[in-house]
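User: Fold this; tokens only.

Assistant: Input:
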Amino acid sequence: MHKHLKIASRLDELEQALLQIEELAHTFQLTPELIDRLIIIASEAITNAICHGNRQDPSKQVQIALEVQDNIVELCVEDEGQGFDRKRIPRYNPDNPDMLLRPHGRGLFLIEELADEVAYENGGRRIRMRLHRNPNPDDTSQNRSAGTT
């Protein structure tokens, strides 16, 4: 099953998009823990697309796709901005006191920590995030990856 949403690049569109994603997650019978992770990564990715990608230009759109197949929940968020190179953005380190006061930088960190797989595509205009529905009980979440294609 899959669902596509398109919203204008305005933060007031975010809440409605998240409500739709949560409603869909319940129809897919995802666990509460998986729904929580999905909502957090969706919120961060959509906020980044609106604020950093499209620079809150309401004439630009954010495309959101949610797909559930077998044991994978995949969320893609794409903006119409200039894109970015993930390698050029310092990874947030919560143990670094200098980073704690920075106003930005936690969104990608949260996404990369909570998603099982993350890929930055289309020149950084699209982020593809995957959550595993039935993770291996021996997996300690060390296999989560952040790559670019």
